[in-house]
Design a protein that fits this description.
Layout (H helix, E strand, L loop, with lengths): L10 H11 L4 H29 L2
């Protein structure tokens, strides 16, 4: 199931997205970037947690 959301963003960020996405649908491209960003965020938090447990 998909959910519809609405966001506002800086005009410069919007232009970057538009230039990078090419012919891909905007929503598909933004969803892909969110998935990549969430994965990176989760991995970073895991690494920080592991490092803090190794070096209290």
């Amino acid at each position: 199931m998909k959910h519809n959301i609405s966001i506002t963003m800086d005009q410069k960020l919007f232009r970057k997205l538009e230039n990078l996405r090419g012919r891909e649908k905007r929503s598909t491209f933004i969803e892909h970037l969110i998935v990549l960003g969430l994965d990176a965020y989760i991995n970073k938090k895991r690494k920080l947690k592991l490092n803090s447990e190794k070096h209290p």
